[in-house]
């Protein structure tokens, strides 16, 4: 099986002996469609590098390569008390992070708040009012009776946004089910701060943070070899530290060319022109029927939101082919429902430990009301492996492209997201693909880990956001460029954060 390296997940090729010829032919056809050889991975990576560079040169490039105004890694000795706000699609989390003067140590308290569904399509005033109410409730509970001037806040705003300052951000487009009029194309910070002021909440937004950048910074807090932050979950993205001299689109700002600048790649949009990714007919259907066709092409092939849908479309297609007898004579109405299967469904199939695939059989019956034969189960298992393996191997191309562009032969990558953390064999398959792309010798890294290695990330939306707020205020206090719109107004906040 392509892409499974030394620690191969168990192969079931020997279980194909009793599979009829019509299904064998379909499995071979699917392998042709979904397997991605090393040569193709290298071709994708080379194109990826050119697109990363284009995003640094041009506004409105396919990969946006957004400057975040986070301009250094933590040294492990940051101190102070900071709030972190993470506004997700389902929940909102508020954290208070106290950074110790002991390298890499911190204390954290946190509360979760439900994000009401009606807010997602309501008004901007309702949204920011609710967020401000939750922050007010958090401070009231944890700081009752205390005199607070202004707690600095790192706001994890994980929606595509362009930033000319670290404490502001213009929303490019809503995602995660939000569709609130009058917000896209505008700075989200002024109405948010207005809601805080109206309620007398003692908070000063210090940094607007993307979760990928937060992941990188939080991971680097405890691991100095960390250079890249990645998200492999419902969507996909990466962040890394560039130098300003390599960002031509910022040349007009006359920044020190050696000044570091964290870049939020937003590289789920890679190859939306469809030049190099090996799309199948099923990928094309997903793209055409999505709310935004010809956008987020890379994400649609590797992210958790789409893996179950690819699987569903393949099974539906097989059922409708005259020369393939699968689910014959059965009611397939549940299989016809778009996005009814998620990546967890595929993960459960791959984790089935039984030779007769009894857990997969029960899953198909429970979820789709379909009875399956042993040969059909073998095809289903192989299809799940193919889709999961392709996602892991393609995901390595973005990481490899950043490493090759920067000339890094070794580094650590902090990775987060449900697919990275929960999908079986994703890490092993991705590591094997990196080895093939970067041409590591067989014995390279033996006993020491791979030259480029992915690790589960620290809490980017909590600790990462707080750290970025701390780093920003540290730069303000020593008079360095901090990417802040009003440094003078931020100095008092910095002093309070140290005392708190």
UniProtKB/TrEMBL annotation:
<dbReference type="GO" id="GO:0004340">
    <property type="term" value="F:glucokinase activity"/>
</dbReference>
<keyword id="KW-0324">Glycolysis</keyword>
<comment type="pathway">
    <text>Carbohydrate metabolism; hexose metabolism.</text>
</comment>
<dbReference type="InterPro" id="IPR022672">
    <property type="entry name" value="Hexokinase_N"/>
</dbReference>
<dbReference type="GO" id="GO:0006013">
    <property type="term" value="P:mannose metabolic process"/>
</dbReference>
<dbReference type="GO" id="GO:0005524">
    <property type="term" value="F:ATP binding"/>
</dbReference>
<protein>
    <recommendedName>
        <fullName>Phosphotransferase</fullName>
        <ecNumber>2.7.1.-</ecNumber>
    </recommendedName>
</protein>
<dbReference type="InterPro" id="IPR001312">
    <property type="entry name" value="Hexokinase"/>
</dbReference>
<dbReference type="GO" id="GO:0005536">
    <property type="term" value="F:D-glucose binding"/>
</dbReference>
<dbReference type="InterPro" id="IPR022673">
    <property type="entry name" value="Hexokinase_C"/>
</dbReference>
<dbReference type="InterPro" id="IPR043129">
    <property type="entry name" value="ATPase_NBD"/>
</dbReference>
<dbReference type="GO" id="GO:0001678">
    <property type="term" value="P:intracellular glucose homeostasis"/>
</dbReference>
<dbReference type="Pfam" id="PF03727">
    <property type="entry name" value="Hexokinase_2"/>
</dbReference>
<feature type="domain" description="Hexokinase N-terminal">
    <location>
        <begin position="27"/>
        <end position="221"/>
    </location>
</feature>
<dbReference type="GO" id="GO:0005739">
    <property type="term" value="C:mitochondrion"/>
</dbReference>
<dbReference type="Pfam" id="PF00349">
    <property type="entry name" value="Hexokinase_1"/>
</dbReference>
<dbReference type="GO" id="GO:0005829">
    <property type="term" value="C:cytosol"/>
</dbReference>
<keyword id="KW-0418">Kinase</keyword>
<dbReference type="GO" id="GO:0006096">
    <property type="term" value="P:glycolytic process"/>
</dbReference>
<comment type="similarity">
    <text>Belongs to the hexokinase family.</text>
</comment>
<comment type="pathway">
    <text>Carbohydrate degradation; glycolysis; D-glyceraldehyde 3-phosphate and glycerone phosphate from D-glucose: step 1/4.</text>
</comment>
<dbReference type="GO" id="GO:0006006">
    <property type="term" value="P:glucose metabolic process"/>
</dbReference>
<keyword id="KW-0067">ATP-binding</keyword>
<feature type="domain" description="Hexokinase C-terminal">
    <location>
        <begin position="227"/>
        <end position="471"/>
    </location>
</feature>
<dbReference type="GO" id="GO:0008865">
    <property type="term" value="F:fructokinase activity"/>
</dbReference>
<dbReference type="GO" id="GO:0019158">
    <property type="term" value="F:mannokinase activity"/>
</dbReference>
<keyword id="KW-0547">Nucleotide-binding</keyword>
<keyword id="KW-0808">Transferase</keyword>
<dbReference type="InterPro" id="IPR019807">
    <property type="entry name" value="Hexokinase_BS"/>
</dbReference>
